[in-house]
C-alpha cells in the first residue's frame, strides 16, 4: 500500500508540473495567453445542449463521450450515465452507477463501457442502460475501454492491459508492465482490432499484443527518457493512439510524435514533440496539441512542420480533432477553437463551458460534440 500511495503522489506531482507547462525555469509562472483577435470565417451553430451531472470533476478526468449508431453516451465523474439521441439531444435513458467514474466512455456491440476509480469496469446495455456485468481489475481505470465484440480491452493506471470476456466480464488474459517511477495521471485509451490489442505505456513504448491470448507481437519505443531528474524523464503516452487505415499515430510527453506501421510496429516517420493529449489526422497531415499550448500541423510525407500556431500558449489545450476542413480543440476557459488545416490560421471560435474544455472533441457525420468540464454536452454544426 505504501508503494501505491508513493506512486499516486508522484503521479499527481507530475500532473501539477504539466499544468504549469514544464517549459520555463522562471520563478514566476506566466499566465495563459489572451485570446487573439481574428476575422471570423466559419460560424458554429449550436444544435442542442444538455447537462450531464457534474461533468469532468476536479481530478483531471478525460471523460470523452462515445457515439454508437444514432446514440451518444456520456458520463460524469459521479457515475451518472446518459444515452441521448445524437441528432436531437433527447434523453433515451439515464443510469446512476453511484461510483466515481474515471474512464469513459467505450461503446459498441450492444455495450456501454466505463472504468472507475475503484478499479472496476462496468458494462451497460446500450438499449436501456441496465447493468450487464461488473469486473474488478488491478487499479483505477482512467481511459475508455475498447471492444471488438469478443473481448473488452482495459488499460489500468499501473500500466497493465487486461482482456475481459465481452459477454461475462470474466478475465481472459493480463499483460503486466512496470510503470515508470514518475508518471502523469492518466492513460490513453487502447486500440483493439480483431487481431491486435495495442496500448501506449508510461515508459514511452507502444506495445501490440495478440488480442486472443495476450502474447506480445511487437514493441516500439517512441520516446527515450532523458535528463537528470525524474521530472525530466517523464515520457508518458497519455493521449491515446489514433488508428487510420494501416497506420498508427502516437505522441508522447517530452518525446516524439510518430507514425507506426500497424502490423509490424515499424516507424514510418517521427518528429520531436511533447504532448499528453493526443493527435488528429487528415488531408495527409497530422495535427498535435503541444504541451506548450501551440498546435502544429505536420506533413506526413516529409515529417516536417507545415505550420505552428502558438497564439494560445499555456491555455491547456485539449486533443485536436479534424472537423470538415478545420482542426478543432478546446482550452482551459471552455472555448472551442477552429483553425485551418491548410495554414493553421484561426477561422472560428465558440464558448462551450466556462469551467473549461479539456476532453477531446468528438466528430461524427458532420457534427461535433464537445463535453465541457462542468458537464455541458453541446452538439455543433458548421452554419
List keywords for this structure.
1 helix; Lipocalin; single chain; mainly beta; 32 strands; four-stranded antiparallel beta sheet; 383 residues; disordered N terminus
Describe, in plain words, how this protein is organized in 3D.
The protein has 383 residues and is mostly beta strands. The chain has a domain at 62-177: Lipocalin, CATH 2.40.128. It has 1 helix and 32 strands. The strands form 8 sheets. A 4-stranded antiparallel sheet has the order 1-32-31-30, with no helix packed on it. Strands 2-3-4-5 form a 4-stranded antiparallel sheet, with no helix packed on it. It has a 4-stranded antiparallel sheet with strand order 6-7-8-9, with no helix packed on it. It is globular, with a radius of gyration of 19 Å. The chain starts with a helix and ends with a strand. The model is unreliable at 1-26 (pLDDT under 50). InterPro entries: BamB (IPR017687), PQQ_b-propeller_rpt (IPR018391), PQQ_rpt_dom (IPR002372), Quinoprotein_ADH-like_sf (IPR011047), WD40/YVTN_repeat-like_dom_sf (IPR015943). Pfam families: PQQ_2 (PF13360). It is found in: Cell outer membrane.
Summarize the structure.
The chain is mainly beta and 383 residues long. The chain contains one helix and 32 strands. The protein has a domain of 116 residues: Lipocalin (Beta Barrel), CATH 2.40.128.
Amino acid at each position: 500500500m505504501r508503494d501505491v500511495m508513493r506512486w499516486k503522489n508522484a503521479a499527481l506531482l507530475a500532473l501539477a508540473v504539466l499544468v504549469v507547462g514544464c517549459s520555463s525555469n522562471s520563478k514566476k509562472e506566466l499566465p495563459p495567453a489572451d485570446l487573439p483577435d481574428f476575422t471570423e470565417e466559419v460560424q458554429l451553430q449550436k444544435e442542442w445542449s444538455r447537462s450531464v451531472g457534474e461533468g469532468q470533476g476536479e481530478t483531471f478526468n478525460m471523460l470523452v463521450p462515445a457515439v454508437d449508431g444514432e446514440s451518444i453516451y456520456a458520463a460524469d465523474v459521479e457515475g451518472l450515465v446518459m444515452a441521448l439521441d445524437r441528432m436531437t439531444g433527447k434523453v433515451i435513458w439515464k443510469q446512476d452507477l453511484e461510483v466515481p467514474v474515471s474512464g469513459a466512455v467505450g461503446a459498441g456491440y450492444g455495450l456501454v463501457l466505463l472504468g472507475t476509480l475503484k478499479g472496476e469496469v462496468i458494462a451497460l446495455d446500450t438499449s436501456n442502460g441496465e447493468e450487464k456485468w461488473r469486473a474488478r481489475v488491478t487499479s483505477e481505470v482512467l481511459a475508455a475501454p475498447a471492444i471488438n465484440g469478443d473481448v473488452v480491452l482495459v488499460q489500468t493506471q499501473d500500466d497493465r492491459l487486461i482482456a475481459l470476456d465481452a459477454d461475462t466480464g470474466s478475465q481472459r488474459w493480463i499483460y503486466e508492465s512496470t510503470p515508470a517511477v514518475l508518471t502523469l495521471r492518466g492513460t490513453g485509451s487502447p486500440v483493439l482490432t480483431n487481431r491486435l490489442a495495442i496500448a501506449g505505456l508510461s515508459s514511452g513504448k507502444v506495445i501490440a499484443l495478440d488480442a486472443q491470448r495476450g502474447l506480445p507481437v511487437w514493441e516500439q519505443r517512441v520516446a527515450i527518457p532523458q535528463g537528470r531528474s525524474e521530472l525530466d524523464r517523464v515520457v508518458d503516452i497519455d493521449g491515446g493512439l489514433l488508428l487510420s487505415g494501416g497506420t498508427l499515430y502516437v505522441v508522447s510527453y517530452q518525446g516524439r510524435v510518430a507514425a507506426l506501421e500497424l502490423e509490424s510496429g515499424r516507424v514510418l516517420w517521427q518528429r520531436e514533440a511533447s504532448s499528453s493529449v493526443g493527435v488528429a489526422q487528415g488531408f495527409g497531415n497530422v495535427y498535435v496539441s503541444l504541451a506548450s499550448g501551440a498546435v502544429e500541423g505536420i506533413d506526413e510525407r516529409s515529417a516536417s512542420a507545415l505550420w505552428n500556431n502558438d497564439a494560445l500558449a499555456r491555455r491547456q489545450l485539449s486533443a485536436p480533432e479534424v472537423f470538415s476542413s478545420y482542426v478543432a480543440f478546446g482550452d482551459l476557459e471552455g472555448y472551442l477553437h477552429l483553425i485551418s488545416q491548410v495554414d493553421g490560421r484561426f477561422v472560428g471560435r465558440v464558448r462551450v463551458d466556462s469551467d473549461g474544455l479539456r476532453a477531446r472533441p468528438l466528430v461524427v457525420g458532420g457534427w461535433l460534440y464537445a463535453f465541457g468540464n462542468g458537464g455541458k454536452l453541446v452538439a455543433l454544426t458548421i452554419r
